[in-house]
């Protein structure tokens, strides 16, 4: 937060590029991930991404999906996701309640061990 006279305001740190002022890719990922209960970063032609989307829809969850192949800064976003995951695999990447869950292996592991549904309920993505 910053204070200017009597007015208070918030700002998001931005990185300056020569062509435009846009947020850092990791900051953009975190911002987008925090805007919905369930967020999936995907590529439309990826079969594992399709499986992740079907899993959540099958559970009665309507995830927000960002198709990276439609993102102008795709490579930067994929690199940011790769850094967040600490892995070379970039999609699908799932966030629940703004928290990074991980790639499909972590999502399926959570589903199989019974921790996925409680996470979804806690995030407000499921009511039952």
Automatic annotation (TrEMBL):
Domain of life the protein comes from: Eukaryota
Subcellular location: Cytoplasm
Residues of the Glutaredoxin domain: 38-101
Keyword flag Transferase: no
UniProt cross-references to CDD domains, sorted A to Z: GRX_GRXh_1_2_like
Pfam family membership, one: Glutaredoxin
Gene3D superfamilies the UniProt entry points to: Glutaredoxin
Keyword annotations: Cytoplasm, Redox-active center
Family: Belongs to the glutaredoxin family. CC-type subfamily.
Protein name per UniProt: Glutaredoxin domain-containing protein
Organism: Hibiscus sabdariffa
